[in-house]
Amino acid sequence: MVKDEDEKLLDSKYMDGPTVQWTVNDLFKGDNKKFMTYHVMESGYAALTPVGTLLGGVLYGVGVRPLSSALRMMGTVGLITGVGGMMLGLTRMNVTAAKGEAASPPWTEDGVQNRVDGISHNFKVRILDMSVWSGLSLAAGALILAGGPVKLGLSKGVGGVLQALSLGSAAGSLGAFGCIYSNKPTVKVNDDEDE
Question: In terms of residue numbers, what domain contains 44?
Answer without folding.
Answer: 28-108+120-185
